[in-house]
């Protein structure tokens, strides 16, 4: 007899916070995720903390699995750390490992963009695992479960089918055959809607590019050098960005999301048919967002809201239905939140903060401020109403500019009006700059010694 609720944790790759029909983008069709939100709680202002690599999914997932901030979650925390950034800090408890130690049957399928040793610590079973960042969706190199935890590259094979279907099939098989008696933790990690964005034809046909409206913050090019204008993601569309090209990218993006949404529906149907729905905490989130033409950008290597805010939905026992929470949280706050919701102690290595009280309506306030980093060229602080982005010149690499952006999010959700140069808002700028400086010092940010306000002593 299960003593704790089951957990089904679904994570996608590159899904922007707003790119759901029910969350503000009526052009995209996401009936399953919209229904999941209607039946549970949507955390509408969930943020990631960024990272020191262009593959932002690595640190975002590392923070999630460890419950530790971006400078503690992995072995390396400098731009030069390279592949070490994907290795989770071995001194930290892991989410899967914690649940496994508490008696959960832990099972994973899909993308694992961190090290193999941490995967082996977390899961006692798995199928169709993709160790990597991206691949063609119809040629996914997969591993089946290796009880030794080695997962040598030569044992990989190419899956027959589309990525989202392959991973959903593995999750459905697990749910259909689960008869362990223990509660389960099922980790389902899609590679969609990450590029190459090649939705199956019937889902591509859902979207006519000419009928998709451009976002209000569409720009042909980013207005200045943000330190990462030529990364791989930014080369997916030519400069200057044109409305026709961006609309096609948006159509492909939406097609990938709608196809993934349908596969999630299959998994939720299997959960119900297996009799587990009433005793399973279902969570949906993304590792990070994506620009797709906003601010003249294509990727996630920036600190605008379209890239650092993610959808975060919870449904299940102890979670009320039909609530939207607009308080600030981090996605890596999910680790202690899940512990609270299923009745487990939070490991002492976790430094994130549970938002279970917000989910259940016992608390009304989230975090006062959230912060994010990108390599050695960008830092961000937001209190939900105001937001400051600090840009640094990386002299050794010859990129970036020494400058600030200030946005009044309460009146400018699309971040189109930079107020940093207006004296009327100097107080807000200095207030946020001090909060950012204090945080950077507290977490050991390598840029903490550089003044937040350019040209200041």
TrEMBL record:
It comes from the Bacteria. Residues 5-343 form the Sulfatase N-terminal domain. Keywords: Calcium, Hydrolase, Metal-binding, Signal, Transferase. Its cofactor is Ca(2+). InterPro entries: Alkaline_phosphatase_core_sf, Sulfatase, Sulfatase_N. GO terms for molecular function: arylsulfatase activity; metal ion binding; transferase activity. It holds the Pfam family Sulfatase. PANTHER family: ARYLSULFATASE FAMILY MEMBER, ARYLSULFATASE G. Belongs to the sulfatase family. This is Sulfatase-like hydrolase/transferase. It comes from Litorilinea aerophila.
